[in-house]
């Protein structure tokens, strides 16, 4: 198959994903968007300072935030502009994935891999959200493509940009550097490093693949230096952050939550299992993994080329080993760090699994497009279908349900109780006090609690005279029939290692707080309610705003 021009591929990708996301483009900001990324980008827009001051700094590098601020500067500040900027980044990421798959396999695999990745629920949802993980993943794809093409300068440049999008992108070049050293140290692995990977397949006759010339193995320094160079811009960023804030890896609470509190052997094993599930099975990804495993039981398909029957080629083993090195390092590292085991952290490696799986289907199934179509349908179904276990709403269209619920409740609260003091938790506390997040037209006075667990609501009841209404909501998605929560031990492990809690229902919260529900709404395992305190009138007292954000 003839390779299409990259500009045409980018245009097609952008138009398709823009149309798919069109109904969502004007949604207000969601969760970590509202709590950190949008305020940080807004601070940069207004002051030009890379360290945010309206929210506690998490030490994330500023590349994506600067990209969003640039769009606001040129086009104007609005959710539509933010969403469009992120869709451009998503299209560029998919173009990088297309080129990577094309270089590793062929154009047919590249088209199918880009399609499956674009439709995968986590990638689809993150394509619109103002967060940094997808952009870092996209720049990593471009770097891996340059790695396969043996372009050292491009490797260093793309990986440097990736780490300036998110610091954890350093894991990919680190994994490749370790793999290269292992290949050099172990004679049996000679040919499995960069020199072997750079002979990846390119399109051959009749859609089969033909090997590029092996060439000579580049010197060791030429292999390793581009993979180590991204440490320099990342170190410079942390040095700058330290000089401005006095700490290196984000504010102390952020560091404790994401690093210090996660270094426990039992938690590591649990998180490792979750990371493996997110890499191979999460949100219908198991359909593709299972199809690949079943396809491995079949012999390779043979195509007629001239007067010969030629087996369809697999992805070169050195390329597969390079992918495996990156996947393994991400799975292990993300199990060690990160207070919240979020699926978006695995975006740099899930598409690598998709590429290998799609290539396997093409190699061993005559009618492989039908299998890819089935996987694509499963992914689209997972946009709307919430699994029977707890998951983050940002991983599919559940985040839209959250936003709509909060829009409805907060508009009512603002209209009916314009001068009231509202008890609520983060991120609604930011949604109410920052009209530029898109939920209210004016700031609402807020009294903040940590969450709506029984302990927190009972504590709030002790100072009920300080607030007039309460905005309560589900801080976690709760499935109707939890698959694993029937096991008490699992629930206890989640409480101990992953900050799990149960939110009390609105009726219980109303009884404890001494009020009555004036508004409530539910959507697919999420809910919100407004509770009015039992008083003769809504007081117009002022108290300080209380904030406490954690990403």
Write out the strand line-up for the largest beta sheet, numbering strands in chain order. Answer: 6-5-7-9-8
Shape: globular
Main pleated-sheet profile: 5 strands, mixed
Radius of gyration: 25 Å
Give a count of the beta strands, DSSP E runs of length 2 or more.
9
Instruction: Please state the average pLDDT score.
Output: 89
Summed up, the domain count is: 2
What is the number of helical segments per DSSP (H or I, 4+ residues)?
23
Amount of helix:
40-55%
Distance between the termini: 45 Å
Name the structural class: alpha/beta
Low-confidence stretches are 204-217, 536-551
Query: How big a fraction of the residues is strand?
Result: 5-15%
Would you write up a description of this structure?
- The protein contains 23 helices and 9 strands.
- Helix 1 crosses helix 4, helix 4 (79-104) runs antiparallel to helix 5 and helix 14 packs across helix 16 (317-336).
- The chain is an alpha/beta fold and 551 residues long.
- It has 2 domains: 6-385, no CATH class; 395-533, Rossmann fold, CATH 3.40.50.
- It has a 5-stranded mixed beta sheet with strand order 6-5-7-9-8.
- Helices cover 54% and strands 8% of the residues.
- Strand 1 and strand 2 (209-211) form a beta hairpin.
- Mean pLDDT is 89; it is low at 204-217 and 536-551.
- The protein is globular and about 90 Å long.
């Amino acid at each position: 198959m003839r390779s299409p021009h990259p500009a045409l591929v980018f245009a097609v990708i952008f138009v398709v994903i823009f149309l798919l996301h069109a109904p969502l483009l004007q949604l207000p900001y969601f969760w970590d968007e509202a709590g950190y990324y949008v305020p940080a980008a807004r601070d940069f827009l207004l002051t030009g300072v890379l360290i945010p001051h309206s929210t506690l700094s998490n030490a994330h590098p500023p590349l994506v935030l600067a990209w969003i601020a640039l769009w606001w500067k040129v086009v104007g500040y609005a959710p539509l502009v933010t969403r469009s900027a992120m869709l451009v980044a998503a299209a560029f990421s998919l173009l990088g994935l297309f080129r990577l798959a094309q270089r590793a396999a062929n154009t047919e695999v590249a088209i199918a891999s880009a399609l499956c990745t674009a439709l995968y629920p986590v990638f689809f949802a993150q394509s619109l959200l103002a967060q940094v993980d997808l952009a870092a993943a996209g720049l990593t794809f471009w770097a891996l493509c340059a790695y396969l093409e043996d372009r050292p300068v491009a490797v260093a440049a793309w990986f440097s940009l990736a780490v300036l999008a998110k610091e954890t992108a350093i894991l990919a070049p680190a994994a490749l550097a370790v793999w290269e050293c292992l290949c050099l140290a172990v004679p049996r692995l000679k040919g499995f490093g960069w020199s072997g990977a750079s002979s990846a397949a390119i399109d051959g006759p009749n859609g089969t693949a033909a090997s590029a010339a092996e060439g000579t193995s580049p010197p060791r320094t030429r292999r390793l230096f581009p993979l180590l160079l991204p440490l320099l811009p990342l170190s410079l960023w942390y040095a700058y952050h330290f000089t401005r804030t006095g700490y290196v890896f984000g504010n102390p609470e952020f560091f404790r939550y994401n690093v210090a509190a996660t270094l426990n052997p039992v938690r590591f094993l649990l998180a490792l299992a979750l990371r493996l599930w997110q890499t191979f099975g999460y949100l219908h990804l198991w359909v593709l993994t299972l199809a690949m495993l079943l396809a491995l039981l079949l012999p390779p398909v043979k195509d007629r080329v001239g007067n010969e029957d030629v087996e369809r080629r697999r992805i070169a083993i050195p390329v597969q080993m390079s992918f495996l090195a990156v996947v393994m390092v991400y799975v292990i590292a993300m199990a060690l760090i990160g207070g919240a085991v979020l699926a978006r952290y695995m975006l740099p490696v899930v598409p690598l699994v998709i590429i290998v799986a799609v290539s396997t289907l093409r190699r061993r199934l005559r009618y492989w497009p039908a299998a890819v179509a089935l996987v694509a349908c499963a992914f689209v179904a997972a946009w709307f279908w919430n699994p029977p276990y707890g998951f983050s709403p940002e991983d599919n269209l559940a985040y839209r349900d959250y936003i709509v619920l909060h829009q409805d409740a907060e508009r009512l609260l603002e209209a009916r109780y314009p001068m009231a003091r509202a008890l609520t938790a983060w991120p609604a506390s930011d949604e109410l006090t920052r009209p530029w997040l898109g939920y209210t037209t004016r700031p609402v006075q807020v009294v903040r609690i940590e969450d709506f667990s029984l302990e927190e609501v009972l504590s709030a009841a002790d100072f009920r005279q300080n607030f007039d209404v309460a905005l309560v909501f589900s801080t976690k998605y709760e499935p109707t029939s939890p698959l694993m929560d029937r096991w008490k031990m699992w629930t206890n492990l989640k409480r101990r290692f992953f900050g799990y809690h149960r939110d009390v229902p609105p009726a219980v919260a109303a009884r404890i707080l001494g009020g009555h529900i004036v508004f409530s709404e539910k959507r697919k395992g999420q809910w919100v309610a407004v509770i009015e305190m039992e008083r003769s009138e809504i007081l117009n007292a002022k108290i300080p705003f209380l904030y406490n954000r954690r990403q």
